[in-house]
Amino acid sequence: MSDLLERLRGRGWRMTSQRRVVAEVLDGDHVHLTADEVHARAVERLPEISRATVYNALGELVSLGEVIEVSTDGRAKRYDPNAHHPHQHLVCSSCGTVRDVHPTGNPLADLPATERFGFTVAAVEVTYRGLCPSCA
Ligand SMILES: [Zn+2]
Ligand SMILES: [Zn+2]
After folding, report:
1. Domain 4-80, what fold?
2. Which one of 22, 76, 78, 124 is CB 3.0 to 4.6 Å from 57, fit for a cystine?
3. Strand, coil or helix: 30
4. Alpha carbon of 8 to ligand 2 centroid (Å)
5. Would you list the DSSP string of 90-133?
6. What PANTHER family does the entry give (predicted)?
């Protein structure tokens, strides 16, 4: 599902070796890493990569709209490359595993007009919580 590297190439994102490693670490399905996790994985591939470089690249990817920031647990923000396919999150309350899920209804449409208080509602975030098979 995720095609982050292709999308970035298509947009002409300046791809230095360091920035490429950040994009590679984030590419994939069900990827929701904290900035520190991205840094730790990037260091495995490119030992000299600094935390600041990783944070800067993450900030750029978010402002480009190619990566979304997700807060699922009220702690560190997580970075999600699945930015072009609207989805919600299923989170294990024990180990923190996060899965991308696609509810069959439309959560945005499910909010009754009487509870919109005149707002123009543009987006919705739903977090499903429970225990994953390993923790259950
Ligand atoms: Zn779990
Ligand atoms: Zn996600």
Report:
1. Arc Repressor Mutant, subunit A (1.10.10)
2. 22
3. coil
4. 18
5. EEETTT--EEEE--SS-TTTTS-GGGSTT--------EEEE--T
6. HYDROGEN PEROXIDE SENSITIVE REPRESSOR, ZINC UPTAKE REGULATION PROTEIN
> Domains of the chain: which residue ranges?
4-80, 88-130
CA distances from residue 103 to 2, 62, 113, 127 in whole angstroms, order as listed? 19, 24, 21, 11
Separation of CA 30 and ligand 1 centre (Å): 14
Ligand 2 centre and the CA of 124: distance in Å?
13
Ligand 1 mean position, distance from CA 52 (Å): 31
Residue 99's CB: how many other CB atoms inside 10 A?
Answer: 15
Length of the chain: 136
